[in-house]
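#dry-run=false #mode=assembly
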Amino acid sequence: MQNEEQSSTEVKIFEAAREVFQSKGLEGARMQEIADKAEINKSMLHYYYRSKEKLFEKVYQLSIIKLIPQIAGLLNEDLPLEAKLRNFAIKYLELIKLNPDIPLFVLHEMNKNPGRLKTFMLNEVGKKIQPFLNQIQEEREKGNTVDLPVEQIMVNIISLLIFPFIGRQVLQVILNIDDSEFDQFIEERIKYLPDYLVKITLDKNSL
Amino acid sequence: MQNEEQSSTEVKIFEAAREVFQSKGLEGARMQEIADKAEINKSMLHYYYRSKEKLFEKVYQLSIIKLIPQIAGLLNEDLPLEAKLRNFAIKYLELIKLNPDIPLFVLHEMNKNPGRLKTFMLNEVGKKIQPFLNQIQEEREKGNTVDLPVEQIMVNIISLLIFPFIGRQVLQVILNIDDSEFDQFIEERIKYLPDYLVKITLDKNSL
DNA sequence: ACTAAATTTAACCATACGGTTAGATTTTGT
DNA sequence: ACAAAATCTAACCGTATGGTTAAATTTAGT
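#status=ok
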């Protein structure tokens, strides 16, 4: 057994695998490419992770597991809805900015194989969002939100927060902007979106 | 040469390929699976389309080409902005409802290989959206829109229209709804979204 | 210092998968 | 009716790729 600096092989493999799987998908990824990126012998992949499936599964699940508690945390702070929503938007954007490849990765893999992760996520995510939905519902009944079903409100929020990261390549093409212009675009978005989300969901005048 | 009923082999292959490529992606798709789905001998795939690459390219490009003129058409009708936006939302939702797998398919493939389609799409899409952006810009300068850069407005619109189709699997999990409930969810969304989009982008009171 | 375990390497294996081929069958044109 | 072309089948091929193995090297424990 080794530690500190040395123990990096297993981690290096994981990091390389994460990069490759997230950009190429399960079947698009090549074990050799992962090994090259990690700068280790291909056999090491199997030494530490048995198989491509197993390695993928680790990357896939950790991609999600890592995010869930952070997101769930934001939704369960004890704050009035408006503050909570604004806070959620800010922190969620920060989070996703640090992990911009995860959403499309997860979406594509779930689409290919809905069964792989479903039950696992059900308990982890679904339940944690429920209190937030309830809180929206309460405010809605008091007439403090836009007059839409809470699920629609939730999906509107998620859509606006997440889509630009998923659709980056297409957006860059149709808006004809390069990487750095896109980054600017995101920065701009981070500035106004929290307030905008509050407005379009909590301001009853907006609909 | 054959026609009518007979000429179906080539078409059957294409349709099968479309289904498989769109749900599994280029490398996730198996030629045998496509052949099975089309109920033909695997050699037929190569007889009609030479290679997996070529077949994929056809599916990929046609997935997009088919949609571009329809979408572009919606954006270039001679209508006041509000009517155009509402019309766009309605028709776009209809269109995407008929082709719900295309957005995620295209996004994933563009992400894996941004070069494959970029220049081709640049000319086709980018230019066609420009007049719409200009029209928004004009109204914005008159103070008739929300005070955001036109690109942000455009992305907000696209996000709200398209994300539910891309994120279907994840949404079903976190909202804990089945296929038919999701379809209901979409129907509900189709009803309110056009008006909602107009409100949140054209009503200056909304921000 | 010595041994045993952990880690790494290079060379090899098995096979899934994309692709080919030769020939059968069907269709088309005259 | 016949030949030529188009369409289709089954059987096969080559190789990329995931995976294995045996032996070398490094590390850890005493």
